Structure to design on (142 residues):
């Protein structure tokens, strides 16, 4: 049996020693909930998926940035530092690809063009077949 007493402003709970349990200082509060039957879920009719890193490989991940640095003779540490300053803004759509690349790569004159660099970036992405297959199996493509 649970009993309580008040000492000053503090409320203490104790188990009744006469109930035969002898445990002090540990409240035992039980609440029994009857399980409710689950509602049948609505069918999935639409998926919103990211492209890069989901349906395509992550074409501008760390490894791919290292490839770009090597291919174009860039300082990888500088590229990474600048990338991390703008990547969130780029992914949130606050800056476009041109603005991102101007700040991350083309902040100084280069021996290659923005078009050449973009073509290299885009060539790094490849279809990610396991995810594409999973999506095709799950939903009819309309």
């Amino acid at each position: 049996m649970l009993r309580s007493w008040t000492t000053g402003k503090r409320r203490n709970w104790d188990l009744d020693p006469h109930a035969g349990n002898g445990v002090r200082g540990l409240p035992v509060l039980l609440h029994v909930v009857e399980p409710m039957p689950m509602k049948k879920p609505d069918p999935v009719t639409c998926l919103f998926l990211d492209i890069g890193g989901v349906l395509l490989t992550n074409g501008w991940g760390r490894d791919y940035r290292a490839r770009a640095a090597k291919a174009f003779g860039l300082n990888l540490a500088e590229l990474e530092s600048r990338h991390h300053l703008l990547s969130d803004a780029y992914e949130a759509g606050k800056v476009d690809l041109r603005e991102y690349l101007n700040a991350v790569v083309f902040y100084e004159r280069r021996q290659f063009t923005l078009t050449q660099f973009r073509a290299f970036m885009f060539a790094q992405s490849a279809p990610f077949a396991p995810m594409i297959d999973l999506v095709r199996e799950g939903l009819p493509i309309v």
